[in-house]
Amino acid sequence: MCTKILIASLLFFSLFAVSSIEAEQLVSLNGRVVDDHTNLPVVKATVTLLLLNLSTTSDNSGKFTISEITTGRYTLRVTHVGYRAATVPVSVDTASREQLVVRLIPKAIHMGETTVTVSRSEKEEFIAPASVSVAAREEFRLRGFSSTAEVLREESGILVQKTTHGHGAPILRGLIGKHVLLLYNGIRLNKPTFRFGGNQYLNTIDLGSLERIEVVRGPSSVLYGSDAIGGTVNLVSPKLAHQEDDLIIRPQVTTRYASADNSRLVGVNLSANGANLSTRFTGTYKKVDDLRAGGDLGRQRPTGWEEINLNSSLQYRINSANRFVVDYLMVRQDKVPRYDKYVSGEYRQYLYDPQNRDLVALTYARENSGQTFRSLKCNISYQRELEGRTQQKTNSNVITYVEDKLITWGGYVQSQVRPQAAHLVVFGGEYYYDDIGSRRSRTSDNQTETIRPTYPDNSKYHSTGLFLQDEFSITGNMTLTGGARWSYIRMESPLEEPFDTLDEVYDDLTGSVALSYRIIPTVNLIARWSRGFRAPNLNDAAVLKVSSSGVDAPSIGLEPEKSNNYELGIKVRDSWLSGNFFVHYNQLSSLINRRPGTYDGKTFLDENGNGVKDNGEFDIFQRRNVGRARIYGFESEAAVEFSDRWQARFNCFWTFGENQTDNEPLSRIPPLMGMVAVKMKTSSSTWIELYSRMAAAQRRLSQRDIDDTRITFGGTPSWITLNFRTEATWRDVTINVILDNVLDAAYKEHGSGVYSPGRGVTISVAYGYDH
Prior knowledge:
Distance between the termini: 50 Å
Helix content: under 10%
Radius of gyration: 26 Å
Largest sheet: 22 strands, antiparallel, barrel
Number of strands: 45
Number of helices: 8
Strand content: over 45%
Shape: globular
């Protein structure tokens, strides 16, 4: 009841603020960002007026404009991943007549990247009232990984669980799979077929199509709805720039080779920027062989796969404030083996083939259009996913093929208004509709029969949400952010006898409150309460699936899972130091757990219909809202710039999870983990870095962990790796070399089904302009 009163108060307060619009004199702030050493323009620098929290980016000439603001004195902050941040006092009435020039000093580490995920508006990490990490495009090549999920391994608070080499799922604050929300440019990627535990879907978005990956740890359900309990991962593609004068075409070719898995990658990027029309095309081909583990483990067979990715965008700029963007993304993965099923001896073959994704999005955006009305974004998207699985057990001639096809139509509308100087209100709504087609066949002795699919064919899932959030500047250095969301979800599935047609509705009202207090300009204190929820999906309610651990049968009458998350944090951002430290506590309730159940009046699947449980006939399990759990811990990271030549960074996190219902550890909880790195810049175009990743042993196991063949008997041992990398740039050519796992340690990330790479070398060569 208190939660609902708080949420209602926030809604009333924000709506009252919107109605209090005052007319003021409006001017523009114009400027240019340049490199302090070369005097060349700095492209895509983030320029922010701190008091009003208005942001823009510099264009290809380094120019920027912040339109229609009131006259007065402000503080301007300019950031870019390759430069030290600059803070400049400005007088807007003077700057509106004379172009301001901001000079940025190059650096080798980024300290405060911009993120948009937290509040659906551009905001620096330092200001964002949450625990946030950003992996920028410049770091993708430096980290040398073959997949999108692996890039996140060097971010604090994230364990990447890999069932096989071609998969990868982030564990955020002890939660994984359907408890972590994946987005592409704010478009939901989570589907109603997501299962508990690790999945492969993050790797169906290619790194070549991304500008950065933003990670928010902790619930984001107010702005993004169901599933965002552990955190949110937003995959952001590059913004298309425009060129006022002549058309500019910029090509780039990237090649990569890694010896540990004999992987080869070729990528092509082509961008063309004109006055009103801009376009970008990216294509990537990957061929990955079996992965060699450290020590005496050798090649892990089979772990290789093949992949083709395409991404293209077209932007039409109507004027300085309005634009249309069409985005198309495609991935084709073939014959991705699930290695843990092979190494356990359970299967002769278990292949994900095909694993295809197509995504088309049309976006209209209007930005900086007035003192009160700040922005409007409207998005319509279409997604098609095709997932096939070929399975054949050891010592069996029966081959089962499962195919799930998901068609998703979606859209969202969001807007920002500033009714008063102290208020920034973000509000909007979204709707997604999933249509699931599923089939399953069994082939034996050249005879094929159709059997009951994993999900009933023509199942449907509707998700609707309305959200509102208000950032209220109490003082110049204290901000209160409150938000609320109403969600409505409907699931329809034509279940067979003895069940009726599944037609269930879930709704939820959730909220969040965060207080940010900058005690001095370089230190920001944050206190945050956020409520998360996850509505049941088809994998919870409609699945009928046989496995070695029993038969999952349809479950009727489920309710949403819920969580209450509390966290305290401190962020530091200075000219030589950037970092943060957060402690968090998350109480989860109504968790959907697997319990003994019945199907057709029996506690086992009576496949031959004789009414007796015979050998090979499995027990029935169903899902119930019976779980309670708590997760708490800390995460920290820091980057230190000792001089123009020497930098260091480190991160460390620890998570404790307890299943209070079964009085045992929560499954898949990461151990104490961290990394430390020291970098030396040898010249203006070359650098070298020595770094180490490490993890303590994880001996606290749930019964599910103990039964999991991917986890070593007694738990996952501790491990440490020593690694080296260097990069050199000469004109338009950049060469990156990585020596990975120099000591050839044999190790496995906790919960993973495949061992991590042994000693190996990775070489990347890029020629041309990197967008």
